[in-house]
Design goal:
The chain is α/β, with parallel strands linked by helices. It contains six helices and nine strands. α1 packs antiparallel against α2 and α1 packs across α3 (68-77). The structure holds S-adenosyl-L-homocysteine.
Length: 218
């Protein structure tokens, strides 16, 4: 390994130990994925040295790559398994999709900003994440043709839980979604059951807006 790669491998190990394991994330697949995915590739060159810090970072278009711990918490809450097909709404930098791609069979991810959509497709190809399927559209309506999904992860804040998304979950499928107003949200986990949904709160969070038909107005 060259010096540069070694530096980032160490920063990544430190991130996993101090920010993620120390705060109680136990899913071994999640920990292994976050030890592996080169988070610094998902930010601009100027921010690479900050990529493993305990905070979100700007990725352009007024959007952000989530704080590492939030990525770990949401991924663990999805209960991802090897044969799962997972839908992500809000590709952003592509980091969350890549973490999922290390664990599950296939990731479907939708982004509404064209420049981010183009950028992430290149990163996924470069890192050989051939199990990530990308789409440029309003993700708030989901991806009906590819449903049902074992998991749906929404990485932008919604005013309420879109019923259209719940309907695209398999029975036993999990959804993680930040719900609230424009400034702060609650991270909600939903499990779809035969006769309805089971809903739990994972606590407060802060995301950029989900904009679209079942999200906020621009
Ligand atoms: N998961 C990302 C972080 C996402 S930031 C990562 O790992 O980096 C939220 C993203 O959601 C932004 O890129 C924003 O453009 C996108 N977004 C907001 N509303 C959307 C919608 N209706 N459909 C698809 N993407 C949306």
């Amino acid at each position: 390994m060259n010096k540069e790669a070694l530096k980032y491998t160490r920063l990544r190990e430190d991130m996993v130990q101090r920010q993620i394991e120390a705060r109680g994330i136990t899913d071994q697949n999640v920990l292994a994925a976050m030890r592996k995915v080169p988070r610094h590739f998902f930010v601009s060159e100027a921010l690479m040295d900050q990529a493993y810090g305990d905070f979100p970072l700007p990725i352009g278009e007024q959007q952000t790559i989530s704080q590492p711990y939030i990525v770990a918490e949401m991924t663990q809450a999805l209960e991802p398994k090897k044969d799962d097909r997972v839908l992500e709404l809000g590709t952003g930098s592509g980091y969350q999709a890549s973490v999922l791609a290390e664990i599950v069979y296939r990731v479907y991810t939708i982004e509404r900003k064209h420049s981010l959509f183009i950028k992430t497709r290149k990163i996924f190809d470069r890192l050989k994440y051939h199990n990530i399927v990308t789409r440029y559209s309003d993700g708030s309506t989901g991806w009906k043709e590819e449903s049902p999904f074992d998991g749906i992860i929404v990485t932008a804040g919604a005013p309420e839980i879109p019923a259209v998304l719940v309907n695209q979950l398999a029975i036993g499928g999990r959804m993680v979604i930040p719900v609230g107003d424009r400034h702060s949200q609650e991270l909600i986990k939903i499990i779809r059951q035969h006769d309805g949904i089971e809903k739990t709160s994972l606590g407060g969070c802060r995301f950029v807006k989900l904009v679209g038909e079942y999200g906020w107005e621009e």
